[in-house]
Amino acid sequence: MSNSMGTTASKHSKVSINRLILFASIIISITACSTIKTNKQAYTYSTVTDKNSYQVRVRSGNLMLDRIIHEAATKEFGKYLHISGEDSFTGFIDITFVLKAKRGITGSSPVYINNVVYGNSWYTGDEAVPKGSGFSSSLPGSESIGMFNIQKSNMIAVIKKKNGLQFWDAQDAYNGVSDFSRLFVQTVDETAVFSLERIIHQFKNDFSILGTLSEAGRHNKSPDAALVIKDKKTVTPRMMVPGRIKIKQENNYLEF
What does the longest C-alpha to C-alpha distance in the chain come to? Predict the structure, then answer.
């Protein structure tokens, strides 16, 4: 009798847990979502890369966060696009980011200090920040947004020419905790880098990029040409075959 009651109680407990999980999943799906949208204007990846180099520009409202995003974008986008810090760049990678966290019923509020007045300028690296540009010297550290807070973040990235012609743009909008990969993201900079990684991953998918620029360069490298000096004449081989090279000279073939 006692075994039967124990079995029944165990079944009821499992049913209750399953219902609780189902209810939680429904609530999460209703109240939260994470989406990434892209708009591809350039037809091919080569259109974006050929004879183009880019300057990374960032606006987050916070100088330290600008630095973190700029460094990450320069490193990660730099695997697939030519990044230039000089005046020789032909286009821009513009990145804007904002994040808010909802705590209880108090509503949404910024979780980092806005300490930058941009005007018409962007953050393009410390060495490029001109005096009097409005950039504050106050550098607060990254503030925690806390686990399980309902976050709202938005990152937009635009790749374009100097003349404004856009090649590609993306928006990673996040509202809630349905994206479980972000569940334990606790700081503003972690959230920003997470969004940036998602955007770059989508950039690779949109243009079917299989490798980095350095890998593509190694694959496309032409074989070294051999020069043979004989009787003060230079003869250049038309084709090199490993282990057997033929060179045409005065209607004769030299094999070696």
Answer: 109
Q: Which of 39, 94, 17 is nearest to 207 (CA)?
A: 39
* Distance, CA of 193 to CA of 171 (rounded, Å): 14
In the chain, alpha helices (H): 2-31, 45-49, 63-77, 188-206, 213-219
Instruction: Show the tokens assigned to 99.
Output: 């994040």
pLDDT digits over 35-90, tens only? Answer: 899 999 998 999 999 999 999 999 998 888 999 999 999 999 999 999 987 778 99
Rounded CA-CA distance 84/231 in Å is 48
User: Is the Cα dihedral 120, 125, 128, 130 positive or negative?
Assistant: positive
Sequence length of the chain is 256
CB 224 within 8 A of CB 235: no
How much is the pTM?
0.68
